[in-house]
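debug: dumping io for the single-chain case to check the tokenizer round-trip. Nothing else runs in this session.
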Amino acid sequence: MSRYRVSARVHGLLSRTAWFLWYVAVLLIPLFLTWHVIAADTTPGEAVTLSAGLVGYSALVVAVALPARLPWLIASFGIETVLAVHRLIALVAVVLVLVHLVAVLIVDPRGLSILDLAHTTWAARAAGTSTVALVLVVVLALRRPGRQPRYEGWRLVHNGLVAVVLVTAWLHVWWLRHLVSDVLVAAWFVVSGLLLVCLAVRRWIWLPVRARRFAYVVQSVRAVPGDGVTLVIQADGHPGLPFEAGQFVWLKIGSTPFVFEEHPFSIASSAAHPDRIEFTIKALGDFTELLVGLRPGRRVFLDGPYGGFTIEGLDDVPGFVFIAAGVGITPLLSMLRTLADRADRRRVWLIISARTQRDLMLVPEVEQLRGQLNLKVIPVVSAPEPGWTGLTGRIGRSLLGRNLPRRPHRLHYFICGPTPMVTSVSHDLAALGVPHRRIHTERFGSV
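debug: decoded output
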């Protein structure tokens, strides 16, 4: 198998603990370094200034490292958790930077004149530029849900401002020669700067180069019930990009993998055949229209695979329960197809929900697998149209209690769909006695 394959199952509690301790160390090391360089005659105000500034800078480093597409990190925590912590750490960094700025204005004898960028030091200019760019990053991020700008444009501005924040913050500290005159502090900032450079090179150069090596060509594009589009791609001159059932990739369409526009999609095809990859995508937005217009033979590029939402490593489990809403069935269909290709006869329950029966996605594809799997399919619609004879309502504790096996705590559960649905069903399963470690989730709208 390819050396790029990343198994989510090896990243359990030990891995998550290691990542957590590593990030805590990155945050707290500068705090210890601050007290190392503080002189005996340093005032409390100056100590607060140094501490808030250095820890704030470290928080920025952590905030940038989190979404840098590190496969082991995403496999350990899941993309939604990684991005949620990224946003939290970014807000912590903003607070610390503002505390640092206020403390400087109080402690520094120059007072507000330090904000006159035309007549101040280069260190102050770098600090002012970094602070303004950081505030803009936060404001644009907070306003994004309400304004709903085009994702690619917002992302370009966001990443550009983040680069300005980091470069000017690093220069600000470096130009304050009294800080980096200490060997340990100087070493810390050199290492942190190199880390950021390495992450940037990996993200924007190495990953696209790798994607070019694993290029695919479009085999077919077709509409599917439920207002979806199924895209099938074939490996172009290589055996395929190995992945695990349930994982996702970022899809790029263009003449080169260095194009900026890309979107994450769960793989719907079997992991046993990485040379032929299939996606089913909900028809929504300009990018979906671009997909519909693709012609067979068109080259596309993949960045991935990523994610820990997978059945790999669960060979001793007696069965699975898959629960999906809408297009959330795609990673679960990948799991079903993979189990079928492996002739796996363990019990599988598939609960799929939609608003109406016409909105149920990939039902024909699931039906094709019935003869190859020990599979029970339970469709649920919340607003049934005339002629519907199946279950109605929403997936909740009562419905789960009536349709799950008598000892539900022995199975593993995979839930995929919108955040409210995933959260609600997770709580219902826990109330039915299912241990949290057996509940695996993937939410839409996290990226």
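debug: round-trip ok. The mean pLDDT is 84.
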